[in-house]
Amino acid sequence: MPEQTPETHVIDFRAAEQLLEARDPRGAVKLLDSVIAAHPENTAARLLRARAFFAAAQLRPAELEFQIVLEREPDNAFAHFALARTLQRANRPDEALRHFRLAAALDPRPDYVEAARFDAP
């Protein structure tokens, strides 16, 4: 296997983005594993891997990755929204609602506000 360099990690990250877009989340996860092993602090790579786990219906790994992102970026509205969707899919609606509401409070996009159900009890 060729030596991994910062350049190959960038290439792998971009390729993982394309794989996720092409609906190959498992392929994206494989590429991102080496990127994150070399750069565990890379929040963008973790967020992309979380999205790939979600797309592959690997909810627990997705949840853990989204939580790591939110530990580092508590004001990341997208990460709150995506974590909420993950929790919703895992049939944990109360936890999901909390993150939907945080996402909407941080970024009042219509889809975030709708999911937050501020008008519901």
Task: Write a brief structural summary.
The protein has helices at 6-21, 25-38, 43-55, 59-72, 77-89, 93-106, 110-116. The protein has 121 residues and is an all-alpha fold. The protein has two domains: 1-58, no CATH class; 74-121, no CATH class.
Question: What does the secondary structure layout of this molecule look like, with pairings?
Answer:
Blueprint (H helix, E strand, L loop, with lengths): L5 H16 L3 H14 L4 H13 L3 H14 L4 H13 L3 H14 L3 H7 L5
Helix pairs in contact: 1-2, 1-3, 2-3, 3-4, 4-5, 5-6, 6-7
Strand content: under 5%
- Helix- and strand-based class? mainly alpha
Report how far apart the termini are: 56 Å
Number of helices: 7
Helix content: over 70%
User: Mean pLDDT, nearest integer?
Assistant: 94
**Major sheet size, sense and barrel closure:** none
As residue ranges, the low-confidence spans are none
Shape: elongated
> What is the C-alpha radius of gyration, as a whole number of Å?
15 Å
Q: What is the string of helix and strand elements?
A: HHHHHHH
In total, how many beta strands?
Answer: 0
Q: Domains counted in the coordinates: how many?
A: 2
What can you see in these coordinates?
- The protein has 121 residues and is mainly α.
- It folds into two domains: 1-58, no CATH class; 74-121, no CATH class.
- Helix content is 75%, strand content 0%.
- It contains seven helices and no strands.
- α1 runs parallel beside α3 (43-55).
- The radius of gyration is 15 Å and the shape is elongated.
Keywords, please?
121 residues; mainly alpha; 75% helix; repeat; Tetratricopeptide repeat protein; TPR_rpt; TPR repeat; TPR_2
